[in-house]
Amino acid sequence: GTLSRCDAAAAVLQEAVAGHGVFLVRQSETRKGEYVLTFNYQGRAKHLRMTINPDGACRVQHLSFATIFDLLEYFRDNHIPLESGGTSDVTLSEFVIASDYSARSAGSGQGGAERRPPNLPDTREVATHGGSVRMTTSALERLQYEQSNSGGSTGRAVENTYTYT
User: Fold this and answer.
1) C-alpha triplet 146, 132, 25: angle, nearest 5°
2) What's the pLDDT tens digit per position in 23-43?
3) In the chain, what are the domains?
4) Three-state secondary-structure class, residue 136
5) Please, what is the Cα angle at 122 between 131 and 91, to 5 degrees?
6) In degrees rounded to 5, what are phi and psi of residue 66?
7) Is the pTM of this model over 0.85?
8) Phi-psi region of 136 (alpha: psi -120 to 50; beta: other; left: phi over 0)
9) How confident is the model at residue 164 (pLDDT cuts 50, 70, 90)?
10) What pLDDT, in 10s, does the model give residues 84-138?
11) How does DSSP assign 104-127, residue by residue?
12) Across all residues in the chain, what is the average pLDDT?
């Protein structure tokens, strides 16, 4: 699904300046078929447009990559270029694991002309991962499940459904 610019910013800014380098990739709201790398740059959300060809090749400004995974791995070790043409001092660190933000996006303004502060999600709603971006969906789901169930867990089953026969 899609994630609004506002919700993407809120997700990467969850830890403010301490989250420098936290990122996510989302579909562009305004340009169909294009994607955006949204990342935390010194406590501010930056959005870098990416073009992905039908064969999977990815382009950001003057840089080309065989896949989006190659692009993300490259920017884990190399500074991200800014839209202004300069180079930032940020490399990608942890990525935001997808969550359901659609309920908060329902009342968004039209046309993007309205600028308002993002609705910051609760801390428990945003999970990040610093490992490989080349994860299968099932591995990501397992990671998300483990992270959501590890907070203060005693290892005891709660809310189990029992059937008596």
Assistant:
1) 90
2) 999 999 888 878 999 999 999
3) 1-151 (3.30.505.10)
4) coil
5) 35
6) -65, -35
7) no
8) beta
9) low
10) 766 778 999 998 887 654 433 333 333 333 334 444 444 446 666 556 666 566 6
11) HHTTPPSTT-------PPPGGG-E
12) 74
Strand partners, 41: 44
Strands 23-27 and 34-41: antiparallel
Sign of CA dihedral 39, 131, 77, 57: negative
What pLDDT score was predicted for residue 102?
41
Phi-psi label, residue 86: left if phi above 0, alpha if psi -120 to 50, beta otherwise: beta
Contact assessment for residue 2 and residue 27, using Cβ atoms and an 8 Å cutoff: yes
For tokens 């502060």, the residue is 117
Hey, which residues does 26 pair with through a beta bridge?
A: 36
Tokens representing residue 19 in the block: 């989250």
Instruction: Give me 123's structure tokens.
Output: 């801390």
Buried b (16+ CB within 10 A) or exposed e, 122-156: eeeebbbeeeebebeeeeeeeeeeeeeeeeeeeee
Confidence (pLDDT) at 151: 56
Q: What is the pLDDT of residue 63?
A: 92
**Sequence letter at residue 99:** S
The number of C-alpha atoms within 13 Å of 138 and in the hemisphere containing its C-beta is 0
Tokens of 26: 């989302």
**Alpha-carbon distances of 90 from 19, 46, 79, 87, 124, rounded to whole Å:** 11, 11, 5, 9, 25
